[in-house]
């Protein structure tokens, strides 16, 4: 990631003189099959069913699960807070991705070799469907990501190892001018992308899976150039299971599992979009929080996360 403070400052200068603070809230529901135990996802995702975003001028607050972040475009600093343990870590925004990479678990060399064989393909199309979400006119775009990875002793016939289908509903361009909260979010996002570029971040964090990182990064680039995301529906499946079932009927797959059905479905939708004055205190670290390393914050937030309720 690159720290481009001049670009960020320039983007702020062209923002409207009259600005409204914004609050956006998303809710997520996840459904799984018996192939992916709910307990496993509970541990991996924690209490991340709800995400709250607040924007005030040059600052943005984001909270999901037990992890809260505050990005200040004027200072180019990012603060991560662990509410459960009342700790915080402050890092320069331009250094966040590198520090995050060193804080996450190291991938063993043998696993790196396997992941390096992955090949992905991303397709995108506009479906032409429109709808109203929270009173905002939205249009749909569909992304299909397939991943191929050879398995030792696996089927030789060509079939995707994994497939992800995602429908994303974004606000129509004209709605951004009509809804103050959308305009504030767009202004801030345009400025913040110079400090924290999500596409570059994904590519770096998934550097051990070059194809996957490039495809997901490209998808983020396409979505960020559009309107605000109001709803997403994601289906994750493993088509290779159907191939295994055909080659070895009744063997190797759990009883009752449909190999052609999605292993997981996730629905995320905005449930609140409001514009109104937000207190400055919401964008400050509480006085009783103690400084800590980024590694401590991430580990503490994950271990203290309250598991969501999954549907099976």
Largest sheet data? 12 strands, mixed
- Helical content stands at 25-40%
Spatial separation of the terminal alpha carbons: 39 Å
Query: Residue ranges: pLDDT <50 for 5 or more in a row?
Result: 1-18, 305-312
What's the SSE pattern?
A: HEHEEEEEHHEEEHHHHEHEEH
How many individual β-strands? 12
The count of helical stretches stands at: 10
What this model shows, in words?
The model is unreliable at 1-18 and 305-312 (pLDDT under 50). It is built from ten helices and twelve strands. The chain is an alpha+beta fold and 312 residues long. It has helices at 5-13, 38-45, 96-103, 109-115, 173-178, 180-192, 198-205, 210-224, 240-247, 294-303, and strands spanning 22-32, 50-56, 59-64, 67-72, 77-82, 87-92, 119-133, 136-148, 162-171, 229-237, 264-275, 290-291.
Question: What keywords describe this structure?
Answer:
12-stranded mixed beta sheet; 312 residues; disordered N terminus; alpha+beta; globular
What's the gist of this structure?
The protein is 29% helix and 33% strand.
């Amino acid at each position: 990631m690159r720290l481009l403070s001049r670009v960020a400052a320039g983007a702020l200068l062209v923002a409207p003189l009259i600005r409204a603070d914004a609050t956006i809230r998303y809710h997520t529901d996840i459904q799984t099959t018996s192939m992916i135990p709910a307990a496993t996802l509970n541990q991996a995702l924690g209490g991340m069913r709800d995400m709250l975003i607040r924007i005030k001028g040059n600052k943005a607050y984001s909270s999901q699960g037990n992890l809260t972040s505050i990005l200040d475009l004027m200072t180019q600093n990012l603060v991560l807070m662990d509410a459960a343990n009342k700790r915080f870590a402050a890092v320069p925004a331009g250094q966040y991705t590198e520090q995050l990479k060193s804080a996450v678990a190291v991938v063993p060399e043998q696993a790196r070799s396997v992941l390096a064989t992955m090949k992905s393909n991303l397709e995108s199309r506009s479906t032409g469907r429109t709808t109203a979400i929270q009173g905002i006119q939205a249009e749909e775009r569909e992304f299909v990501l397939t991943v191929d990875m050879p398995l030792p002793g696996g089927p030789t016939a060509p079939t995707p190892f994994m497939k992800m289908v995602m429908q994303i509903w974004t606000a129509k361009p004209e709605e951004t001018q009509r809804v103050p909260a959308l305009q504030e979010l767009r202004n801030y996002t345009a400025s913040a992308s110079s400090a924290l570029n999500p596409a570059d971040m994904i590519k770096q964090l998934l550097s051990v899976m070059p194809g996957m990182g490039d495809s997901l990064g490209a998808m983020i680039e396409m979505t960020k150039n559009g309107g605000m995301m109001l709803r997403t529906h994601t289906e994750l499946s493993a088509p290779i299971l159907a191939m295994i079932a055909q080659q070895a009927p009744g063997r190797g797959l759990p009883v009752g599992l449909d190999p052609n059905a999605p292993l997981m479905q996730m629905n995320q939708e905005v449930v609140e979009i409001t514009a109104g004055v937000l207190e400055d205190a919401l964008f400050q670290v509480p006085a009783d929080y103690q400084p800590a390393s980024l590694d401590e914050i991430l580990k503490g937030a994950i271990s203290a996360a309250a598991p969501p309720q999954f549907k099976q």
